Amino acid sequence: MAGIAVGDETPWGVAAELSRLLPGTTTAAHGPEDIAARGASAVVTQMLDDAADRRIVAVVRDVHRHDWMAGVLHALLAARPDTVVVEMGVPQAPPGGALHIATRGAARVCGRAAAEVITGVSTGAVTGNEAGH
After folding, report:
1. Does Hydrolase appear among the keywords (predicted)?
2. Which residues pair with 57 in a beta bridge?
3. Do 118 and 84 touch, CB atoms closer than 8 A?
4. Residues in contact with 105: Cβ distance below 8 Å, sequence separation at least 6, in sequence order
5. pLDDT, tens digit (0-9, with 9 covering 90-100), for 28-51
6. Mean pLDDT over the full length of the chain
7. Average pLDDT of 52-73?
8. What is the pLDDT of residue 133?
9. Counting Cβ atoms within 10 Å, is residue 33 exposed (0-12), middle (13-18) or buried (19+)?
10. Residue boundaries of the structural domains of the chain
11. Residues 77-82: contacts with CB within 8 Å, 24+ apart?
12. pTM for the whole structure
């Protein structure tokens, strides 16, 4: 059972922020059920085909805890070492990718910060605390 702060209802990741900063960004999500049904190789092939020559940003959460996720990430990085990896959980696995960002959390602000690093665009957004409120 999900609580208020967690669950499918709570958005996390960098997709929304990247889409805002880079209109035309496309996203896909893959979970253990998808990998079990289609196989890691088929999922990675689909990612590569969908991306073509565009930059790939792989967003993971606690990759060290999930063998399926680590396997897909490893295969993706073998095929596209220029992939940007964003770890939004606890960064325990060795860093990989052309750029490895560890946000140490999956709050929306973490996704915003990662998107700003990836794009080089600062939104200048501040929260109430940062603005002195």
Report:
1. yes
2. 84
3. yes
4. 88, 89
5. 889 999 999 999 999 999 999 999
6. 85
7. 93
8. 42
9. exposed
10. 15-119
11. 79/44, 79/48, 80/48, 80/51, 80/56, 82/55, 82/56
12. 0.82
